Amino acid sequence: MRGKTRKPVIAIFDVGKTNKKLFLFDEHYQIVYEKSARFLETLDEDGDPCENLESLRLSVFDSLHEIFRREEFDVKAINFTSYGASFVYIDEDGRPLAPLYNYLKEYPEALSTPLHKKYGGLEQFSLDTASPSLGSLNSGLQVYRLKNEQKEVFEKTKYALHLPQYLSFLLSGKAYSDMTSIGCHTALWDYNKHDYHQWVKDEKIDKKLAPIVDASAVFPATFPGSTFKIGVGLHDSSSALIPYLLNFHEPFILISTGTWCISINPFNDQPLTKSELESDCLFYLSFQGKHVKASRLFAGQEHEIQSKRIADHFDVTTARFKHMEINWDIVKELESKPVDVELDAFGKLDLGQYADFEIAYHALILHLIKAQVVSTKLIQAGKKTTRIFVDGGFSKNNIYMNLLAHEFPEMEVYAASMAQATAIGAALVIHEHWNQQPVPNDLIEIRFFRA
User: Fold this and answer.
1) CA terminus-to-terminus distance, the chain
2) What CATH code is assigned to 243-417?
């Protein structure tokens, strides 16, 4: 009898740069188990900090053993989502051959400059690959670097796998590539030809990339006697978009807010222009392999720094800003003078001009919103979008949300809240393989802000 009552669940590993999380979701996408871990970074051969791959690998197996010991859960499937721009180089036997290099590692210009030059110059190269020039963040260039600086390791490499696909490989023993990881500013993909860029083929790097499969593909696990399915893994930004794409069918823009505020328009596939590229726009590939135009703004970081500056100046704690309601009289007064749209503009202002912390904080958010509007408008074209959803930290900020609605009077602006959108995206993409229930249509709570 006991076997009958076990709850069917999916396990999702959500591997961030700082936090590594494991979630179990039931068939209604409710979290029924959650565990979080942090690992100490280790150093690569140059002494640069990097992810501890061995700790990560062991943690995946340890966490799973712990779950399998629990009698109340019946694990039907496992999937992964993680940050992009990082490769694991494995040999014939699936063993890693090199550290998991940090995407913030300095990239030698002596390597990148001739490569860009050979394929039409930096601007053309960046436009073709929809990848602003970001050094090691263009993860394809990491493979190029390995080939040039560590020939023996490159020779021994059977496959270079992006991190989500490596984690999937640990459990399925199958090496595959997925579109969402290839599409995130890797400089590998030619968005005009919808294929690997010519440089990838000329350098024979495509031979080291595993075959591409659909994001919804699943494979049997290598554990003896196990019946659960293993997903191929997803890039986190693309994964977080999945619940929105499945829930809302009218064209929309999603502003995903955190340290970076990323405006994402899945309904704009117009080619990138030179000026968009210079303004930090890029393409992602959605889980369906479609072009998704996005623009990035370092606004969460700026908010943190400037909030602290205001708090120090007025001798209060930043907690005072947390639940502050909007004061339209203050906004009116602030808007009577021109507001600079540059992200760092507020940081250059003298706080002595503000009578109290409330006015100063309103001024900060007003500056951030002006910069945000410029960033979001870069990707607004395409099919007529009528809605903006904001998720993440700023969706809970009353002043931010009201000012955003005020700046986009022709749009419906919503704060969207959803616990763990990235992890749920990775579960939804393989829904049919593990879940007997229909996809719930109330996964995302939305709150309307009037202009």
Assistant:
1) 57
2) 3.30.420.40
